[in-house]
Amino acid sequence: MSPEEIAAEKTLTDRDESQVARYLASSPEFFERHPEILAELNLPHQTFGSVSLIERQLLTLREKNTDLQRQLSEMIQAAHANEELLSQCAKLWLELFDARELQEITAILFRHLREDFGIDESQLWLCAAGPVEIDGVEVTQVGEIYHFSGSVFSYQEPVCGRISEQLGFFFKNYEELESVALVPLGDRAELGLLVLGSKDPQRFSADMGTTFLRIIGSLLEKQIGRL
Prior knowledge:
7 helices; disordered N terminus; elongated; two-stranded antiparallel ribbon; Beta-Lactamase; five-stranded mixed sheet; 2 domains; alpha+beta
């Protein structure tokens, strides 16, 4: 680069820096609007308004660190909760594995749902040809399931949400329930439906993950299919 080109570039650089300096001087709130820039700056301890830039940068980094710590804490809590749920599913499967009678299967299922998973009320609806005289088990037709659930379970996904009078059809005593989970058994609930109710309105929210509900449904479906 020739001396003339070097001089021209320096003039442009000086002019650009001057424009930036004038803009920052007239816009002291700039770093408030763009805190992410502060995290990337390497600055001497020079005063910018009532708080120095270096102090503002440290504050921004502390806030970012606090947010990351909060996210990490939430992830750890979720991991512990998932580990506990997985352990409970494993316990359920170990007991269900040797069960060969529907009455034994349902007794094991309802006990685990109540004691391990904290479910306030549960009911099993089976699409069976004849009557079934087992506590907590009702016989129905798949069309009736579709009608009262408002779903045909096309994607085999459990349906969760707030209780309604229509969904209350599936429970013996639904007046105290606030949220429900409907777990289809078989393709589009052709084998039946496991319904879970909770007094907690947030227990079965419409946007919750349903992985463990699907696991429980699969375990039950497998055992019923072996009868």
